Inverse folding.
């Protein structure tokens, strides 16, 4: 029964978190977002004391339930291990833990966070690693499937589905996600929870706490006949059947051993703080149920934005290129570039939720995989708070639309050589017409010449840096007007 409860809860968390990354329509119920905010490292970076303390207490009471129920990367390993087990049953055996490696990975992870290099820690942070896998590997397949359904529905005169663009946001992030996926799958296929118990810093930290958990699997010497079924089915390879000992620092409380033992020699029970209680005489075998579930974050309302690729069906429009920005642009709610880079673990949830295709992972070495804003495919709409609604790390604080409409994140810069008023001698006016804040006014290129084309004049005090002007500018390959980021956001 305990194993079934654990599987049900793990399935709910895994499906819920995966759906958060895949949902591009905004139809998911708002409460599902809490599953991202109860992940350990995001809660730690967001200084969410209640969640961090709650997870530590959960581990101290019941063991590493976080790893087997709440962590999506842990559940993914269980799925891979289960698939491998269908081909070769009872394939595990006890092995000593990689203690030195675990400590080294935990120390490196902690140092990266302390010195404010969150992107470096993100490589092995389990939730963020899974987020990149979903956003870069699973999401394109999901969207292609949606587009196929849209194609079929359109020919049946139905608009139940609509087509969306599938494009490469970052080759570097895709490569990191692919390598992580392959490594995790190989390790899980061959050794079950090898990644969790040798690489993952969260697993190491919670493992140190779980050694003293009050409830844990306990071996009853009076009932054990030494068949080693528990050890052969332990995906964490932490049961030493010969010595009747369990390494609780690696045990993820999956309950497989409890379910496998034919004689009821292993029970999940109250054992106190002592680590010596994994060998006991026959005692009360009462089973205790546990619950590790809940609900939070709102997904922003999403809509698809198709890119027009031809001009009037005749001339092919050249794709825009990303301008070089001295300071990257980060979303409203980030407060500052430093706050964003310090807290962001590059989980890509905000990237997957952005309805305007404004956010994409950075390829810069000092912000690798962390999202930044660019406006080749859209602009940051004043009423949209999708990224702030879903960020679990505190990198983007929750904001209201009216607050966003008065926060400056960058300043528009005009490049005279790119403007068609100078190149072709005609007035465009696109930047002025589409500026939501009236920060751009068109003036005559030559005051005395009434026939001279108009060029934009930017009111830097009114400009918020939304990128509307950069997005609608017809100049190719570089816009004649682009947004330069600022280090500290401010209200105007």
């Amino acid at each position: 029964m305990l194993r079934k409860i654990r599987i049900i809860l793990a399935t709910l968390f895994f499906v819920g978190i995966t759906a958060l990354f895949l949902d591009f329509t905004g139809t998911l119920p708002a409460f599902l977002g809490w599953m991202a905010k109860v992940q350990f490292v995001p809660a730690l970076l967001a200084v969410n004391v209640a969640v961090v303390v709650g997870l530590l207490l959960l581990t101290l009471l019941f063991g590493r339930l976080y790893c087997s129920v709440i962590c999506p990367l842990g559940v993914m390993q269980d799925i891979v291990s289960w698939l491998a087990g269908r081909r070769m049953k009872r394939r595990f055996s006890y092995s000593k833990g990689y203690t030195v490696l675990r400590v080294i990975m935990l120390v490196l992870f902690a140092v990266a966070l302390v010195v404010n290099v969150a992107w470096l820690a993100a490589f092995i942070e389990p939730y963020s690693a899974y987020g990149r896998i979903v956003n870069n590997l699973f999401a394109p397949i999901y969207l292609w499937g949606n587009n196929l359904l849209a194609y079929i529905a359109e020919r049946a005169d139905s608009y139940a589905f609509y087509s969306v663009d599938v494009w490469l946001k970052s080759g570097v992030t895709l490569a990191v996600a692919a390598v992580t996926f392959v490594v995790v799958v190989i390790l899980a296929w061959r050794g079950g929870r090898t990644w969790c118990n040798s690489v993952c810093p969260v697993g190491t930290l919670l493992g140190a706490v779980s050694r003293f958990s009050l409830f844990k699997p306990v071996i009853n010497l009076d009932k054990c006949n030494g068949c080693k079924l528990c050890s052969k089915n332990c995906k964490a390879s932490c049961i030493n059947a010969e010595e009747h000992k369990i390494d609780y620092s690696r045990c993820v409380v999956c309950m497989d051993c409890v379910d496998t033992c034919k004689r009821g020699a292993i029970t999940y029970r109250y054992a106190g703080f002592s680590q010596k209680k994994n060998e006991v005489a026959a005692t009360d075998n009462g089973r205790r149920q546990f619950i590790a579930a809940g609900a939070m974050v709102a997904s922003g309302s999403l809509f698809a934005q198709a890119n027009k690729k031809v001009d009037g069906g005749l001339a092919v429009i050249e794709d825009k290129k990303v301008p070089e920005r001295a300071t990257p642009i980060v979303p409203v709610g980030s407060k500052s570039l430093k706050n964003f880079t310090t807290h962001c673990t590059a989980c890509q949830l905000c990237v997957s939720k952005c309805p305007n295709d404004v956010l994409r992972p950075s390829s810069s070495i000092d912000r690798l995989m962390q999202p930044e804003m660019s406006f080749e495919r859209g602009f940051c709409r004043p009423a949209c708070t999708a990224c702030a609604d879903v960020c679990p790390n505190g990198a983007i604080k929750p904001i209201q639309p009216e607050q966003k409409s008065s926060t400056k994140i960058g300043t528009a810069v005009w490049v005279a050589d790119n403007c068609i008023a100078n190149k072709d001698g005609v007035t465009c006016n696109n930047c002025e017409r589409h500026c939501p804040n009236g920060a751009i006014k068109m003036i005559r290129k030559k005051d005395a010449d009434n026939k001279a084309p108009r060029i934009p004049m930017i009111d830097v005090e009114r400009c918020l840096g939304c990128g509307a002007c950069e997005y609608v500018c017809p100049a190719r390959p570089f816009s004649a007007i682009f947004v330069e980021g600022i280090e500290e956001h401010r209200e105007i």
In short: The chain is about 40% helix and 10% strand. Residues 275-310 have pLDDT under 50 and may be disordered. Residues 388 and 398 are 5 Å apart (CA to CA). The first strand starts at residue 215 and ends at 220.
